[in-house]
């Protein structure tokens, strides 16, 4: 065997120009997710209202005003969990994306030598962690203050719904963040968030709403998320949860494609 052949066999396989090794690729995704989480932890004025809003409501209506009604406490645990899960997705994506587009940070990130999906996956990881934290806080309040008895399977189901149920609202927040820039995003997102929560039965049970509003409740993704949280705590056993999960997956894909199209066109 010639010397050149031996050297060629001993030489490590080169990574193609412009490509990253798997280890570096994973490190880039991990670093972006870590930076997103740290950025929001260092902004308590943003992260605390987003995570504590629903817990304060549950303390007021599920514990203090409830007067020991176990079924009401269980129902409110599910509905306020859905309400709390939505927030990190809408505001964690929508507000930050709008501000970063307005300040040119998104353009800078596109120019950096990082995987294109790391930016979005980092924000998704932050939203999933925040939604899980909200769910854990509400479960603790429900267990120790409202005396809601849940099995291990129901607790696991609630945590799974919290971590995954935020994703359609990440896509919705991302789409809204492409429609407006800068400081106008929080106001627009609140115009989406609060009416959607009310019309989905997250504040009042749907039977208490007028018939015309109950009829259109299923058009809102928050309604389907609430059906999943109700099923997780054992209050929606008459209906299979998977159709609601499929609807939420469809919402996520639809808003993600709309947002990606606008970002490609308008930046």
Mean pLDDT over the residues: 86
Counting DSSP H or I runs of 4 or more residues, the number of helices is 12
| Count of the domains | 1
Specify the biggest β-sheet. none
Alpha-beta content class: mainly alpha
Provide a compact summary of the structure.
With 267 residues, this protein is mainly alpha-helical. It has helices at residues 3-10, 22-41, 44-64, 70-103, 105-111, 118-144, 152-165, 167-179, 185-199, 211-215, 221-232, 242-266.
How would you describe what is shown here?
With 267 residues, the protein is mostly helical. It has one domain (21-203, 213-266). It is built from 12 helices and no strands. The radius of gyration is 22 Å and the shape is globular. It starts with a helix and ends with a helix. The model is unreliable at 2-17 (pLDDT under 50).
Question: SSE layout and pairings?
Answer:
Blueprint: H1 3-10, H2 22-41, H3 44-64, H4 70-103, H5 105-111, H6 118-144, H7 152-165, H8 167-179, H9 185-199, H10 211-215, H11 221-232, H12 242-266
